[in-house]
Amino acid sequence: QVQLVESGGGLVQPGGSLRLSCAASGISLDQYVIGWFRQAPGKAREGIISMGKTGEEPYYVDSVDGRFTASRDNAKNTVYLQMNYLRVEDSAVYYCAAASGISLATMPEAYDYWGQGTQVTVSS
């Protein structure tokens, strides 16, 4: 059984930082493209980062480029999302997802496995 378990969400002030983790069981994340998504209330799920299998540079959408950094620790079968300079508009539930057989993609339908999501709230 495949499980992706996210952690690290919480409440942070604007300008602050959080690091999300996504630990996998049942699959080896180094064999999958990893996506990070977020969904704010009343909005569609948005793909913000896609990270390839082979160590190629991840793709970041403009709204997070330069502030967010995705990384892998293959030994721990875990991926991370470091979020810096957080803004109120970054508030959302954040999801990690894994996809096989594709190149980088930010469309949710491209992904096979999903975590349960973790809430990030940016507020003063």
The main sheet comes to: 7 strands, mixed
Q: What is the terminal separation in angstroms?
A: 40 Å
Helix tally equals 0
Give the % helix. Answer: under 10%
Order of helices and strands: EEEEEEEEEEE
Task: Tell me, rounded to a whole number, the average pLDDT.
Answer: 94
Beta strand count: 11
Description:
- With 124 residues, this protein is mainly β.
- The strands form two sheets. Strands 2, 4, 5, 6, 9, 10 and 11 form a seven-stranded mixed β-sheet that branches.
- A hairpin with a 4-residue loop joins strand 7 and strand 8 (78-83).
- It is 0% helix and 47% strand.
List keywords for this structure.
single chain; 124 residues; mainly beta; 0% helix; globular
